[in-house]
Automatic annotation (TrEMBL):
<dbReference type="GO" id="GO:0032259">
    <property type="term" value="P:methylation"/>
</dbReference>
<dbReference type="InterPro" id="IPR016461">
    <property type="entry name" value="COMT-like"/>
</dbReference>
<feature type="domain" description="O-methyltransferase dimerisation">
    <location>
        <begin position="23"/>
        <end position="105"/>
    </location>
</feature>
<protein>
    <recommendedName>
        <fullName>O-methyltransferase dimerisation domain-containing protein</fullName>
    </recommendedName>
</protein>
<keyword id="KW-0808">Transferase</keyword>
<keyword id="KW-0949">S-adenosyl-L-methionine</keyword>
<dbReference type="GO" id="GO:0008171">
    <property type="term" value="F:O-methyltransferase activity"/>
</dbReference>
<dbReference type="InterPro" id="IPR036388">
    <property type="entry name" value="WH-like_DNA-bd_sf"/>
</dbReference>
<dbReference type="InterPro" id="IPR012967">
    <property type="entry name" value="COMT_dimerisation"/>
</dbReference>
<keyword id="KW-0489">Methyltransferase</keyword>
<dbReference type="GO" id="GO:0046983">
    <property type="term" value="F:protein dimerization activity"/>
</dbReference>
<dbReference type="InterPro" id="IPR036390">
    <property type="entry name" value="WH_DNA-bd_sf"/>
</dbReference>
<dbReference type="Pfam" id="PF08100">
    <property type="entry name" value="Dimerisation"/>
</dbReference>
């Protein structure tokens, strides 16, 4: 009887591990799509334009986003702040409805292009190849 319980426990653990892997994959996709959206909208540039911090309204105005899309922008910024791409410089108070978002050191906005390329190439070197357990493959346009 003990072996049936052990088998059941092992099966449950395997199922939980599989579900966890699916959740990790799902959230990795969401994070990458959020980052892609931020890059396409040039959110970092909009925040930088406002002196390094900006509200959702300021960001939406700078990136020329229709006001009806501001709730979507709020959700996007929530994902980007949770993942550490941007920071929340000031949480909204009762009279002030907008959070103030800031740049983080992860954003290579203030670096010259040659330094950004050096940083990214060093990141590539630090990640082992896929056949050695690495999970990423990078290809530069200049290669």
């Amino acid at each position: 009887m003990g072996s049936i319980q052990e088998q059941h426990s092992t099966d449950q653990q395997a199922l939980l591990d599989a579900q966890l892997e699916l959740w990790h994959s799902t959230f990795a996709f969401i994070k990458s799509m959020a980052l892609k959206s931020a890059m396409q909208l040039r959110i970092a540039d909009a925040i930088h334009h406002h002196g390094g911090t900006a509200t959702i309204t300021q960001i939406a105005t700078k990136v020329q986003l229709h006001p009806s899309k501001i709730p979507c922008m709020s959700r996007l910024m929530r994902v980007l702040t949770v993942t550490g791409i941007f920071s929340i410089a000031k949480h909204p108070s009762a009279e002030d409805a907008d959070s103030v978002y800031g740049l983080t050191p992860w954003i290579m906005h203030d670096w010259v292009d040659s330094e950004c390329v050096t940083i990214l190439k060093n990141c590539k070197k630090a990640i082992p190849p896929r056949n050695e357990g690495g999970k990423w493959g990078f290809k530069y346009a200049t290669e």
